[in-house]
DNA sequence: AAGTGGTCTAGACCACCAT
DNA sequence: TGGTGGTCTAGACCACTTA
């Protein structure tokens, strides 16, 4: 009776749960009803209900904790470092970056930015630039591009005085959760502006990462172009 | 009775299956017994048996086909292109690379190679260099390093006249299946030898990918250093 | 002790594939 | 038609957390 059907039963349950998550009816950090409760609510067996949740847990949208319950995932520092930050030292252990704001300005979408965000060229955007340091030295420049229409009233203060990660800010202030990203990497000659910030000589190679982030409804919500000095660091990925 | 226990029952079943796969008792391409059969053999319920297989299917070690059965995965061209080849055109569709052999020689492990393969410096190795072209132009140089002890009797002929992928050769000729890789990427100035092969000017930036491949027993079996011209192509990764 | 997720059972029925 | 994997049920019991 709970509306959505068509395919398998557990997929229907999954869609309903996903919609509640995407709409904000279930908020990040919140404890969701127990499996037994949900099973009776949806009028399915506990096995089917668990199967519906399994996928969401695998996508790290929900987090199961034995004895406590199932929670809606949040974007904490740890999650960022583990799943969304792929620059590591060539030697030594991964660590949290130290972030400094370079600027926050209004802009309009260039050809490249428009294409990657799926908006029209010339659409008003925010352009945020941050400098990230690892082990005391600048290693990475982030150029973040956002559609103004999707982030009404976003201010530099929010960006600069945030205690947590940027994805956490998106989640807290706008109810938008990044669940998936696509990254495209190239080797390029460093741009003069970036060279200065990274304290790199002109003409040196840098790694550029163009990352498109998607929310729970699979909409593009952010384009981030990272420029990385890979003299002492590198990009790491584990692939199946 | 089937030996291995300790944790959950389905993990035990999984370990036994995994051992049969790693030892070659179950070979790539082969149809494994049906779930009902395995369930009675292991003396577990069908649900538990399925749960044991679920993980292996997710790791793409087994492939389920409704109505037909469950098969041991093979390294065909499609799998390679989809899961182990991440260089795509900046514009247009992904395509199969055209591979040419540059050389096949015996060598000894350098510092870097030894570290990444987990062997001692100076250990005898094979060093294979291939040139890969996309859309008619050379884009990528692969430098493959293998521990001679792990690949006894490997010949250039096998490498050059192989109809399929290199991972397929490993599987057919040595019974070694690559199931997981780690990749580390940097931007570097192109090396003169590589520049010539890629028809790149000296001093241009290239993307280097250091990939370590692991088999089913989680042993390091191959180091592949790819040097990529990213003027018209790029490295693509989708991340959760 | 009560509530949660994690494991396991012993089936039934469906969808798909080969013959 | 018979065999396969895919879905679903209605429980039971275990491991863990909190009070």
Could you estimate the helical fraction of the residues of chain A in percent?
A: 25-40%
Overall 3D form of chain A: globular
User: Could you give the count of β-strands of chain A?
Assistant: 11
| Radius of gyration of chain A using CA atoms only | 20 Å
Mean pLDDT value of chain A: 94
User: Gap between N and C termini of chain A, in Å?
Assistant: 39 Å
Please report the number of helical segments of chain A: 8
Strand content of chain A: 35-45%
CATH class (first level) name of the largest domain in chain A = Alpha Beta
CATH fold-level topology of the largest domain in chain A? Chorismate lyase
- Physical arrangement of strands within the biggest beta sheet of chain A: 5-6-7-10-9-8
In total, the number of domains of chain A comes to 2
In CATH, the architecture of the largest domain in chain A is: 3-Layer(aba) Sandwich
Pick out the low-confidence regions of chain A. Answer: none
Identify the quaternary structure here.
Answer: homodimer
CATH superfamily of the largest domain in chain A: Chorismate lyase-like
- Specify the biggest β-sheet of chain A: 6 strands, antiparallel
Q: How would you portray this structure in words?
A:
- The structure is a homodimer of 240-residue chains.
- With 240 residues, chain A is an alpha+beta fold.
- Chain A has two domains: 9-72, Orthogonal Bundle (Arc Repressor Mutant, subunit A); 77-235, Chorismate lyase, CATH 3.40.1410.10.
- Helix content of chain A is 30%, strand content 35%.
- The first copy, chain A, has eight helices and eleven strands.
- Chain A has helices spanning 9-23, 35-42, 46-58, 77-84, 111-117, 156-160, 166-174, 192-198, and strands spanning 31-32, 62-65, 69-72, 87-89, 98-108, 124-134, 137-147, 178-189, 205-215, 220-228, 233-239.
- A six-stranded antiparallel beta sheet of chain A has the order 5-6-7-10-9-8.
- In chain A, strand 2 (62-65) and strand 3 (69-72) form a beta hairpin.
- In chain A, helix 1 (9-23) packs across helix 3 and helix 2 (35-42) packs across helix 3.
- Chain A is globular, with a radius of gyration of 20 Å.
- The A-B interface holds A 47, 59-60, 83-84, 86, 90, 179-189, 203-207, 228, 230, 234-240 and B 47, 59-60, 83-84, 86, 179-189, 203-207, 228, 230, 234-240.
- Chain A binds a DNA duplex (19 and 19 nucleotides) through helix 3.
């Amino acid at each position: 009776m709970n509306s959505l059907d068509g395919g398998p039963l557990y997929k229907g349950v999954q869609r309903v749960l996903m919609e509640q998550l995407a709409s904000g009816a279930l908020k990040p950090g919140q404890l969701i009803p127990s499996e037994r409760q949900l099973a009776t609510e949806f009028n399915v067996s506990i096995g089917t209900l668990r199967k519906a949740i399994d996928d969401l847990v695998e996508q790290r949208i929900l987090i199961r904790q034995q004895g406590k319950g199932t929670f809606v995932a949040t974007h904490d520092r740890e999650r960022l470092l583990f799943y969304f930050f792929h620059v590591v030292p060539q030697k030594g252990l991964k660590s949290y970056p130290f972030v400094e704001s370079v600027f926050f300005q209004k802009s309009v979408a260039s050809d490249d930015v428009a294409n990657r965000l799926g908006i029209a060229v010339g659409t008003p955007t925010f352009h945020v630039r941050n400098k990230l340091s690892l082990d005391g030295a600048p290693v990475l420049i982030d150029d973040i591009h956002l559609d103004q229409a999707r982030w009404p009233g976003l201010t530099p203060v929010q960006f600069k005085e945030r205690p947590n990660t940027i994805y956490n800010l998106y989640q807290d202030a706008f109810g938008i959760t990044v669940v998936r990203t696509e990254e495209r990497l190239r080797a390029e000659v460093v741009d003069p502006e970036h060279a200065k910030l990274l304290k790199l000589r002109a003409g040196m190679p840098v790694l550029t990462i163009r990352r498109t982030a998607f929310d729970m409804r699979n909409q593009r919500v952010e384009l981030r172009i990272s420029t990385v000095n890979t003299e002492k660091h590198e990009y790491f990925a584990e692939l199946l």
